[in-house]
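For the sake of transparency, this paper describes our internal protein records without simplification. Because each token names a local backbone shape, the row as a whole describes the fold. One such record is reproduced below, unchanged from the form in which we store it.
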Amino acid sequence: MDARDTDLKRELDATLHARRDLGDEYESALVDSFLEKVDQRIDGAVERRVRRQFAEQQMQTARDSRSPRATDSWGERFGFGLVSLVLAVPLSAIGGGVAQLPGLLAAWAGIVGVNVVQAARTNPNLFGRRKSSRDSGWED
């Protein structure tokens, strides 16, 4: 039993005590007052639940709109690969010239890393990751 239930129980006890004190002529007014409080409690719970679901749907919509698949075309992926290879030449020369083989390996590790991240971003299932199959229904 949580705090809201104890508050409601207290309200019911107070209503029953007031009925005993005031008599039968005030019974309908007391019951109406108690039911009004119960309705407010239910309305508040429903409103919180609807707001939470709405916020979750907005977050999901925002995540989906930022999805790389929605904006990345074949040309963008091809261009990224081409720019990556073009930049690989001077990076290899600088890395190899400054630090010989370790510098060359570091340059190519960076190039490969950037391309792996780009590939994973544009194709989320590439490395076995799966989207959550969580339903966006009205479950609680």
Remarks:
- DSSP finds four helices and no strands in the chain.
